[in-house]
Write a structure and sequence with these properties.
The chain has a domain at 10-33 and 41-62: N-terminal domain of TfIIb, CATH 2.20.25. The chain has no helices and 4 strands. The protein has strands spanning 10-15, 20-32, 44-52, 58-62. It is elongated. Bound molecules: zinc ion (ZN). Zinc ion (ZN) is lined by residues 15, 17-18, 22, 52, 54-55, 57.
């Protein structure tokens, strides 16, 4: 079912759901971490989102790990 375009943004990574290395589509999203509205505008963080082309599971990794 997964018709995957031979895109340059397709990478091979280990998928926790599949339990082996599969092809993933990777994108970057800016997500706002706003539990409280207090400093919401300062808590926009880039996240790396990789989607397994086998099972569709998304793995989200925060890019600012400092
Ligand atoms: Zn998977």
């Amino acid at each position: 079912m997964a018709t995957q375009p031979a895109g340059a943004d397709s990478v091979r990574e280990r998928c926790g759901e599949c339990g082996h290395t599969t092809s993933h589509r990777v994108r970057v999203e800016i997500r706002t971490e706003s539990q409280t509205a207090e400093n919401a505008q300062f808590s926009r963080e880039p996240y790396r989102v990789s989607t397994c082309s086998e099972c569709g599971t998304e793995s989200v990794t925060r890019m600012n790990n400092a």
